[in-house]
Design a protein that fits this description.
The protein is mainly alpha-helical. It has seven helices and three strands, in the order H-H-H-E-H-H-H-H-E-E. A three-stranded mixed β-sheet has the order 1-3-2. The protein starts with a helix and ends in a 9-residue tail after the last strand.
Length: 157
């Protein structure tokens, strides 16, 4: 009986030790403007700098497309951190130029975003000022992605 007890304990230990050796789940990456313990409102972005510039150039058309979509479920609106994209290798002067060249289109986009109640609610929920929005896009699946600078960062332009 004693041998069985040791064998059982051995089996339990063999099963438990690998589980204890597993690394802890990775914590979400904290952005430089985020306070410790504060949840990140905007998703980090895998968008490239050039893709952001292209989205800025399409601002007016994108705004009209978003208006045509009408109400959207929460899962179809995503806010992405444009500050992280700006920090990628790129040319800050090109970003500034794109924002200046598309000032009217950007203003129209912002108005269309406010008119779409689903997007407006997402911006309000995450406390993103509308003047921090620099671009948006409608993905093939109908998801609206809004690129904005965090509240603690002033967007160029």
């Amino acid at each position: 009986m004693q041998k069985r007890g040791f064998a059982l304990v051995g089996l339990l230990l063999a099963a438990a030790v690998p589980a204890l050796a597993q690394p802890a789940p990775a914590q979400p990456e904290q952005s430089p403007d985020q306070q410790p313990g504060q949840e990140q409102a905007m998703a980090p972005s895998s968008t490239s700098f050039n893709a952001l510039l292209a989205a800025i150039g399409r601002a007016r058309d994108t705004g009209q497309s978003i208006q045509a979509l009408g109400p959207l479920p929460d899962s179809k609106v995503e806010l992405r951190n444009a500050y992280n994209i700006e920090q990628q290798p790129g040319d800050p002067e090109r970003l500034q130029g794109a924002l200046n060249d598309n000032r009217d289109g950007l203003q129209a986009l912002r108005q269309d975003l406010i008119r779409n109640k689903s997007v407006d609610l997402a911006l309000a929920r995450d406390q993103v000022p509308i003047d921090h929005v620099v671009a948006a896009e409608v993905q093939p699946d109908g998801k609206v992605v809004v690129y904005a600078f965090p509240q603690s960062r002033v967007p160029p332009g």
